[in-house]
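Q: Could you fold this chain for me?
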Amino acid sequence: MTTRYAALLRGINVGGHKKVPMAELRELLTELGHGNVATYLQSGNAFFSSASDDEQALATALERAIHQRFGFGVDCLVRSGPYLQAVADDCPFPADELEGKQLHVTYFSEPVGPERLASIDTAAFLPEEFRLGDRVLYLYAPNGLGRSKLAEALGKPRLFKGIVATSRNWNTVVKLAELTRE
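A: Sure. Below is the predicted structure, expressed as structure tokens.
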């Protein structure tokens, strides 16, 4: 039995740095023995099927292969279709009423507790808000991510030290769930 996964690559193809052509990424995933390989956008979203049920092992193997092929490190998170659907379903904000650019999800490599974010004065950033979920943070930024002061505060490296984190807008979150359905 195989499981459908998404690989979320962090920080590739941004501003001409860490260039990973999607055709080569698809080729690499196929060489790793994965089936039904596809990519979405140029920002590091890949899809594949695998008999493995070890998301961390799949991510580590992909990170190694990318480093060997391209000569630089890229953090990867691998998440199953059911998990990605649960992230979409569990959104604490009214996603159906918002534009995709107003809602973002940051995926984490491990669970993040509220104590990590205790230093953020949430009232100071209203109407912007965030909520924690299962290895994710949901961010409501009504004026978009580029203008979000809360996103800036959440982007401080000390908050998530030792954790791999990568963000996607709501449109991509929905597409990730869709493209990993069995």
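A (continued): The chain is about 30% helix and 25% strand.
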